[in-house]
Amino acid sequence: MSKFYPLTVAKVKHETRDAIAVTFDVPEQLKEAFAYQQGQHLTLRAMIDGEDVRRSYSICSGVQDDLLRVAIKRTPGGQFSTWANATLKPGATLEVMPPMGHFNVPLDSQSARHYLAFAAGSGITPILSIIKTTLLAEPKSTFTLFYGNRASSSVIFRDELTDLKDAYLQRLNLVYVMSREQQDIELFNGRITKEKCQQFLKHWIRAEDFDVAFICGPEDMMHGVSAALQEAGMPKERIRIELFASSIPKHERKPRPVEAGANHQTEVTVIMDGSHVSFTMDKEKESILDAGLRAGIDMRYSCKGGVCSTCRCKVLEGEVEMDVNYALEDYEVRRGFVLSCQSFPIADKVVVDFDVAE
């Protein structure tokens, strides 16, 4: 899972002025490695101005499409996204890690479920994959999507969403929310916030009508919508969230003081791709990921912000303190999973396993 593979770019389509959809050509011998579930993401790697740059982008194609495609929206100051939008062309080669992520629920062709989704901007990317896959896989299920943008011109995948609506007239309810473009229904003007979601729940939908909710977008929108849904009676475990690294605030670790006379160093063993590698690091000074990279280990990572879950591993021995976590579910943390980019050892010996899937 930690290995990158060179994939050729088959197609680059400009969806909006600052967003492209990139389709990869997956050779037959890699079809199994790059089989994906709806809502998962890819970690892309490129040398940009002599620097090894990695970023995670959500897959936007449905599982049944037999197509590997991601959307890359240019963000202010975004090194990878700016480079990709400016230079990627068909025939280019990118290093790509196999699909990862848990932003989905198991599907059943016999289910008749009602799904709800809130997306803002490029947050539509994994949601589109989930909608396309679900409506085909569960013929009795329905989907309601609230999609927030500044204006019509900034709506990513607008044509595809229109085609989906035409194909599933009775099963897909599509609501656009615009912050800088006036719409006829006042309820659908503004940004998607907790208060806006409360208005939707009062005037347009009922929380009790839905089985699962998906939320993807900026951090404040995500937490606001989740809070509104929970206050309306939807259990937290039925709300799935996916946050993008570009939308989180910067976090600075405040090291805990190490007691005088205590051991300041930790022996860390990393299990990855069947191999065991050990190194020694100082407590509290850097994360397990950064220390491993400094020790020369090709550790698996992307965002380094606790968002993408690319560096997810399981603590088999010892104890670590995780600074921030936007990627792991509560049940994963209870089972011992951590994000190595946010994990600081507090025991004298720590063993982490990157090969454990569940």
Q: What labels describe this entry?
A:
358 residues; alpha/beta; 5-stranded parallel sheet; Ubiquitin-like (UB roll); 6-stranded antiparallel sheet; Elongation Factor Tu (Ef-tu), domain 3; Rossmann fold
In words, what does this structure look like?
This protein is an alpha/beta fold and about 350 residues long. It folds into three domains: about 5-100, Elongation Factor Tu (Ef-tu), domain 3 (Beta Barrel), CATH 2.40.30.10; about 115-245, Rossmann fold; about 265-355, Ubiquitin-like (UB roll) (Roll), CATH 3.10.20. The protein has seven helices and 18 strands. The strands form four sheets. The protein has a six-stranded antiparallel sheet with strand order 4-3-6-1-2-5, with helices on one face. The chain has a five-stranded parallel sheet with strand order 9-8-7-10-11, with helices on both faces. Strands 13-12-18-14-16 form a five-stranded mixed sheet. Helix 4 packs parallel to helix 5 (about 220-230). It is globular and about 65 Å long. The two termini are about 15 Å apart. The relative contact order is 0.12. Its cofactor is [2Fe-2S] cluster; FAD. This is Phenylacetate-CoA oxygenase/reductase subunit PaaK. GO terms for molecular function: 2 iron, 2 sulfur cluster binding; flavin adenine dinucleotide binding; metal ion binding; oxidoreductase activity.
